[in-house]
Write a structure and sequence with these properties.
Layout lengths: L2 H4 L14 H11 L5 E4 L6 H14 L4 E4 L3 H10 L1 H5 L4 E3 L8 H6 L2 E4 L1 H9 L14 E4 L10 H16 L2 E6 L5 H7 L7 E3 L8 E9 L5 H21 L4 E4 L3 H18 L9 H10 L3 H8 L2 E4 L5 H13 L4 E4 L2 H4 L7 E4 L3 E4 L3 E4 L2 H8 L10 E9 L3 H10 L11 H11 L5 H8 L3 H8 L9 H14 L3 E3 L6 E3 L1 H8 L4 H16 L6 H9 L14 H7 L10 H11 L10 H25 L2 H16 L16 H9 L5 H14 L4 H12 L4 E4 L6 E2 L4 E10 L4 E12 L17 E10 L2 E9 L5 E9 L8 E9 L1
Parallel strand pairs: 1-6, 1-7, 2-4, 2-5, 3-4, 5-6, 8-15, 9-11, 9-12, 10-11, 12-15, 19-25
Antiparallel strand pairs: 13-14, 16-17, 18-20, 20-23, 21-22, 21-24, 24-25
Helix pairs in contact: 2-3, 7-8, 9-20, 10-11, 18-21, 18-22, 22-23, 22-27, 23-27, 24-26, 24-27, 25-26, 27-28, 30-31
């Protein structure tokens, strides 16, 4: 059955001309029915075409399609793959981070691509103009729905699909690798029997022979990696000698490089004929296309590595050369198993344990194991594919059971029920206990619980719900009326949901805000970084022994004895973000900083809501420091469009540290500071688009008699662009009895806040300032203006008044 025969207007959207057997059998359910569809099929059997069929049907009807990809890296791959739809006049838009979102493009897109986490965040804000596009979805395609069983991420996918169905009830097409309980997933999604498919191993294009190989575990983990590498090469060697290819999965980006380098030496030692050193034309092509010297040398020997840290061009070339057979042995991280269809005759999983920057050492998920082994066997080249798990003898039986019995998909919602329940309450979709029960009935957790009531605790489900709600009340996230059992989120609960925080982290942030508001904590950048370093999102970060000296050096001037080792590591990464991060910490630094930047932004929202604009502005500056890697003195420059770390550093070295300095220097001064004329013009224009404050004290007295009072007015004028601002007036007494507490007119020497206001500063704002003859020799009045949404250093001016 040819594609052009079935979908003539979409024939060019497919990467092939004829549907295979599996696709033909599913085609009527996808194109001739409006029912939801669930399809389970072996890896490499052509499931992606089922997604594209569902999308084509929706596009032909003028609708909008949503494709949920299991990994962020794969969203970008889909954008590239689906240029074919762009060529047909349909727009594809990948929804990524908050700041990168273009709501207009998202609203006009024909195909949206998102991860479960991004969709969760977006649906929580569906009633905002920025995210209202998620309520206009006509078909939702879930790629790899067996992600439901993934630790932490599974519950996100589960509640998000349930929420999306309540919001706009799209058609759902769920695709999965082979799973024994496909009927449970179908029942959850209301897919009838006629549109539920369980394609068995007979639909694999190549038979799979999978098994377990063991090695002897030693005391040294580094040496163990090489033991497993030699075991992997033993497995791959017969296939390499027969001109077959081998794909070896390892735990990290660095390990792909190290393993490839060691494998080249070992292959030469074993005298296995591989490589393309005699191919002069390809040798020339390598020089012209690969800047990565290590990769280029490896490819010449028929060996390569593949990971997300390579440039897209480099990854594409490695994939192309592997498909062409120029690369015969490829080392990769797990991302490749979920993405590009890149089969090999032999697949070996060298590492079953991974180092996660946020979780520490974790077991590879059973889903990942099965996904990787499914890459074994090249259609059209091999009759059989060989897949092997290399593991310690103690774990061999566990992996043999997995290969023999597969993995039933379970719900992970119970593990994070409080977090997701808080999100629903914060959105207003749940208002009482009965609505909690109704919400649960929409989840895969509830469906799976029907099959395993004891295991899922269903006999006590209502009591568990009450316990969960009471805990949310006790921790300040929810308020519950005891009479009618009505439920409402508190500001803490709404902020936790909006900013996608774990509840433990939200409680930590709220506690810090309380202490700042009470005056028991003097808030600074150090306190912000420490609050983030101790966030629950980083609870599993571990510090390796090899990292300890670097951590101690970075934190030498800080008291950190009450922090755990992992928290000290996170704090060290944050503290070194504005300078040079020690080499020992660079492996995990990018992931830690990316997550920390999000958390600092969330803390800023807590401070804005619970303390005030000045505290929020401090968090915004800390966020900009992390994001751009600039010093505290130059952070205000990053508020200017076209100024990131490089230009901010260049300008600050020339003494230009604020947007005001930029405006004063002018275009000529910026050129003198090292910018090109075109860049200087853009930077100058960017500085003009920011708020700029002038403070007019009016007829402010220079002296005041003891016991006298005078009310003055200070005018704050914004001569730049309008922005939300916080205005604060403080007074500090010096000399006399300034610090005495017995006098009603005394002024503490650490200052008293007289006025604090928050407003959208368009033009001018007038604030009253009371000047009084206190028990002090001198009074210092300070007016400070801070912008909570901009990383601008607050504008401050002072006036001294003598008490006579």
């Amino acid at each position: 059955m040819e594609v052009a025969e079935v979908l003539p207007e979409f024939a060019d959207a497919f990467a092939f001309e004829e549907f295979n057997r599996m696709q033909r059998e599913a085609l009527p359910a996808l194109l001739e029915s409006e029912e939801n569809v669930v399809a389970s099929a072996p890896t490499a059997s052509g499931k992606t075409a089922l997604a594209e069929l569902a999308i084509c049907k929706t596009l032909s009807e003028g609708g909008t399609a949503l494709f949920i990809a299991p990994l962020r890296a794969l969203t970008n791959e889909k954008e590239d793959d689906w240029d074919r739809f762009e060529d047909l006049g349909y727009s594809v838009y990948v929804v990524t981070g908050e700041r990168d979102l273009n709501p207009r493009r998202a609203r006009r897109a024909d195909i949206l691509v998102m991860t479960p986490e991004k969709l969760d965040s977006a649906t929580r804000k569906h009633d905002s103009r920025r995210y209202d596009f998620v309520t206009e979805i006509d078909v939702c395609v879930i790629d790899e729905v067996h992600l439901l069983d993934a630790d932490r991420r599974g519950s996100v996918l589960e509640v998000t699909i349930s929420r999306l169905r309540r919001l706009c009830n799209p058609r759902v097409v769920a695709l999965s690798a082979t799973m024994p309980n496909v009927d449970d997933v179908a029942a959850w999604l209301d897919a009838p029997a006629e549109t539920t498919f369980e394609f068995g191993e007979e639909y694999r294009p190549v038979d799979l022979h999978a098994g377990v190989k063991t090695y002897t575990h030693g005391e040294n983990s580094f040496a163990d990696k090489y033991r497993r590498l030699y075991r992997a090469l033993d497995i791959a060697e017969p296939h390499l000698r027969e001109d077959g290819q081998a794909l070896v999965f390892v735990s990290s980006r660095q390990d792909t490089v190290r393993a490839a380098e060691k494998a080249r030496d070992e292959i030469a030692e074993r005298d296995i004929e591989m490589g393309v050193r005699g191919d002069y034309d390809f040798h020339t092509e390598l020089k012209e296309t690969l800047e990565n010297d290590t990769l280029r040398k490896s490819v010449l020997d028929g060996v390569a590595f593949h990971h997300a840290g390579l440039s897209k061009d480099e990854r594409d070339l490695v994939e192309e050369w592997f498909k062409e057979g120029r690369i015969e042995l490829l080392f990769s991280t797990s991302t490749l198993a979920w993405g590009v269809n890149l089969p090999a005759r032999c697949v070996v999983i060298r590492d079953t344990k991974l180092h996660d920057p946020l979780e520490g050492e974790v077991d590879m998920s059973p889903l990942d194991v099965l996904q990787m082994l499914g890459r074994a066997g090249r259609p059209g080249y091999d009759d059989v594919g060989y897949g092997w798990v290399v593991c310690d003898r103690s774990e061999a039986d566990k992996y043999r059971r997995l290969l023999d019995d597969g993995k039933e998909i379970e719900s992970r919602l119970a593990e994070s029920l409080e977090t997701h329940l808080n999100a629903e309450i914060a959105m207003g979709t749940i208002a009482d206990v009965e609505e909690v029960m109704a919400w649960l009935e929409t989840t895969f957790y509830y469906e799976r619980g029907q099959s395993k009531p004891e295991e899922y605790g269903f006999p006590d489900l209502r009591r568990r719900v009450r316990d969960c709600l009471e805990d949310l009340v006790d921790r300040g996230f929810v308020e519950m009326d005891g009479d009618d059992l009505s439920i409402e989120a508190t500001p803490r609960g709404r902020l936790a949901s909006k900013y996608y925080l774990r509840l433990e982290t939200a409680a930590t942030f709220a506690d810090l805000c309380d202490r700042v508001a009470e005056g028991t904590v003097d808030l600074g950048i150090d306190e912000i970084f420490e609050a983030v370093a101790t966030a629950d999102e980083f609870d599993s970060v571990s510090a390796r022994q090899s990292e300890q000296d670097a951590i101690d050096t970075v934190l030498a001037d800080r008291e950190t004895s009450d922090l755990e080792a992992g928290q000290r590591k996170v704090l060290a990464v944050l503290e070194s973000s504005t300078g040079s991060t020690p080499t020992e910490l660079t492996d995990d630094a990018w992931v830690i900083r990316r997550n920390a930047t999000r958390l600092v932004s969330a803390l800023g929202a807590f401070l804005d809501r619970l303390v005030g604009p000045h505290a929020a502005n401090l968090a915004r500056r800390a966020e900009a420091q992390l994001e751009h890697g600039v010093s505290e003195t130059a952070v205000g420059l990053t508020a200017i469009d076209d100024v990131a770390s490089g230009r901010a550093s260049k300008l600050s070295k020339e003494g230009l540290t604020t947007p005001g300095d930029v405006l004063e220097a002018g275009i000529v001064g910026l050129v003198d500071a090292g910018l090109s004329e075109g860049v200087a013009e853009r930077v100058y224009e960017g500085a003009q688009s920011l708020p700029a404050v002038e403070i007019d004290w009016g007829p402010f007295p220079e002296t005041i008699a003891t016991g006298e009072n005078e009310v003055c007015e200070v005018t704050i004028r914004n001569v730049g662009e309008p922005a939300r601002a916080g205005i604060r007036v403080t007074v500090t007494g010096r000399g006399g009895d300034a610090s005495s507490s017995h006098s009603g007119s005394s002024v503490p020497d650490d200052g008293v806040e007289m006025t604090s206001t928050s407003s959208y500063l368009r033009d001018t704002e007038t604030v009253p300032v009371g000047v009084f003859g206190a028990d002090a020799d001198e009074l210092e009045f300070t007016v400070s203006v801070a912008f909570p949404e901009e990383p601008l250093v607050p504008i401050q001016e002072r006036r001294l008044v003598d008490v006579v």
